[in-house]
Amino acid sequence: MKKLLGIVVLVSLLSGSAYAKKNDIVIPKYFFANELTKETCSLEGVHGKGSWGKEYWEMDLAITHVSKKKNPELQGNNYDHLMELTEYNWNKDHEARSNSIYVNHEKHTNRLALLHGTIIYAIVNNKMDEHGPIIAKVMAAWAEAGVMLNTLTSKEISILKDQGKVDKLCYGGGKAKGDKPCISHRPHEAQIYGATYIQQAYLMKDQFTKEQFQIIDKYIDTLYKKYIKPWATKELTTKKSARGFIQMADGTISVLSYLAWKDKPEEVAKWIKKGIGKANKVIYEDGYIHNNSFRGVRDVWYHSQGVNNLLGLYAIAELWGYNKFPKKLKKKIDKTVDVLNLGLTDIKTYRKRKDPSGMQNFTKNQAHATYHVHQMAISLDWLIEKYTDRDHTIVANDRMWKSKKSGYFVDRNFGFEPKCMN
């Protein structure tokens, strides 16, 4: 009887292992990479609009950097610049400086990029013993200050819309008025911030003191419950309301950031499937993307963002061991690259395809035109070359894109530099 029981248990274990191997989810050591070295991920930073230095000047990514050593006239340092975010109010900043067309988010996104840069610098240069405690102090300070947590939630905004206090849709109620407010950008940015912060916390997990970990873990839970999960749950839909495909693979990567922090690989496949379902819903058979591809004079720009995030979804799924990505969907994603190449070479032909949705969240004002690849999709040519058989050189030779993307060293669509993936 014992022998028979042993055989049953063995068969059960073997069948379980076989099943697991069909879709083995393994969260990479560094979230987006299994190895980080100077050869695989050597970031080079420059000052941006939200930095303490002069725009486009070379920036040392070490947390200990003091500008007097290199640029005496700047009189700033990375640590102080990062710590200033503890006093930041995204609600007020957005109300004062942004509208439906322009979301001026650089004050927090540039600091998130710098935070990421300081962590990668410490890892690849074997300086974590020295720099880790300083970075941990910054991250704990952001958590204690509750950065972003006073941002309006999607639920709160829905109430304001029902009360008639704000437009139900951006662009002046969906009437192509770009100068009108878009309050929905606030929780959207909060979930991008939350996801990026969590990725950095995951990289730093072994560096926090017990007290710091408790503060940061609670902060992460709040970011997830208030912004990330509600946003991803709403956006990753296959219902008629599904529209477009934007940052963080429409929230998929945001949730994966949280699952990595909580070490829950068993829940990953469910969310990747949601991302796949949404992607399949919004890509038309000819490679145009619902909403993204039809945004007035910024159509190619938004389409390129869609392509970037679709390839990001595919790349992260592959890296994490998800091996059930639908071949039919992958072919549709490849077609989005064809459409992007068309938009970059023959805009008139690109625009012969009319928007079947009839949405009006765009501007026709040529002053706001962007006939180039999205500048924050800093490695889209690389993603196309690595994950498709399409021509990547059209993107690679987009001179305006190359000029504008030079101010970024992190793709904020994902929270990291895609070329570092391995």
Low-confidence stretches: 1-22
**What value does the Rg take, in angstroms?**
22 Å
Give me the secondary-structure category.
Answer: mainly alpha
Please count the beta strands (DSSP E, at least 2 residues each): 2
Q: What does this 3D model show about the protein?
A:
The structure is a single chain. The protein folds into two domains: 37-235, no CATH class; 266-405, no CATH class. The chain has a two-stranded antiparallel ribbon. The radius of gyration is 22 Å and the shape is globular. The relative contact order is 0.12. Residues 1-22 have low confidence and may be disordered. 53% of the residues lie in helices and 1% in strands. With 422 residues, it is mostly helical.
SSE blueprint:
Blueprint: H1 2-22, E1 45-46, E2 58-59, H2 78-83, H3 90-97, H4 106-124, H5 128-145, H6 154-162, H7 170-174, H8 185-203, H9 210-235, H10 247-250, H11 252-261, H12 268-282, H13 299-319, H14 327-345, H15 347-350, H16 380-387, H17 393-396, H18 399-405
Antiparallel strand pairs: 1-2
Relevant terms:
422 residues; mainly alpha; globular
Summed up:
This protein is an all-alpha fold and 422 residues long. It is built from 18 helices and two strands.
